[in-house]
Amino acid sequence: MAVRRFVKALVLVTAFSAAVSALPASATDKPAGPGQGRSPDAKAEPAVKRISLKHVRRVVLDPGHGGDNLGALGSAGIREKELCLDVARRAAAWLSARSDVEVLLTRERDVAVELRQRPRLANDWRADALISIHANAHEAGEASGMEVFFLAADASAEAARALVEREEGIRVADATGGLAWSVGGILSDMELAAQHQRSERLALALGEALKTVRPAARFRGVRQAPFGVLKEARMAAVVLEIGYVTHPEEAPQLTDPAVQDQFGRAMLKALVALDSQMAAQAQAQAQRPPPAKAKRPARGQ
Ligand SMILES: [Zn+2]
Q1: How many angstroms is it from 160 CA to the middle of ligand 1?
Q2: Rounded distance from Cα 185 to ligand 1 centre (Å)
Q3: 161-196 pLDDT tens trace
Q4: Which CATH number do you get for residue 231?
Q5: In a domain, 21, yes or no
Q6: 89-103 burial string, b = 16+ CB within 10 Å, else e?
Q7: Each residue of 129-152: pLDDT tens digit?
Q8: Distance 289 CA to ligand 1 centre (A)
Q9: What is this structure's pTM?
Q10: Cβ pair 193, 201 in contact under 8 A
Q11: Residue 281 forms part of a structural domain
């Protein structure tokens, strides 16, 4: 039974991977060409200059939930799984139109994708960055605002733990084990530290960009949390909470294509910052002396 289920999942995943791999450079349904976007920005910039990034060559956007995993349910019938997919598509179109970064999505339709499969797809595709997109919920509908997370070594913050448990349907207590949870055996300590620095850089830069791009929206901060989706990622990886689907004013804003474009704009700014940091890391790596060998005494001494 378990084997059958595994094989079925494997076939599904392989078919899905093949379908996505077969797509052209941009995984968006309709890459927004210059001037095609619906936002005022796109109209104001008929000839969009595409930014060229050297180190960030491929980005995976991961729309949370999907299929029978609905995610948070908000006001006016807004469902997180659909909202995340819309935002991912708009952001992918934005990035593809304005940079030479290749953008892939972990899901392009309303289908279920297993939690662990998401970072594994990003690993298989050798992505340089993974941005998992979610929307938050608050029982009383009072909370609002955007938030960015990168991986925490532990689940010390109670609020972060509750969020991870709600988002991923797992008990965090069962899934602790720090940064080396699953990539530890694959990456050296030095690689792991460099990757963690890149995730932190991406998270902080995305936070700064969101504050600039959406100054009127509330920004709750950059935090650390033990998200399962981040634990297996072998690249800069963050979770973006775009806002609260339960907030009566914020929720409808999130469905606005112009607002969804703003997330793409913020992501591009953040990826540019990540690219600079990766360039600095590469330079430091190149300048580092090779591992010291045991000194042999000079002849004649
Ligand atoms: Zn979610």
Answers
A1: 13
A2: 28
A3: 888 888 888 766 544 444 445 555 566 788 888 999
A4: 3.40.630.40
A5: no
A6: bbbbbbbbbbbebbb
A7: 999 999 999 998 899 999 999 998
A8: 44
A9: 0.79
A10: no
A11: yes
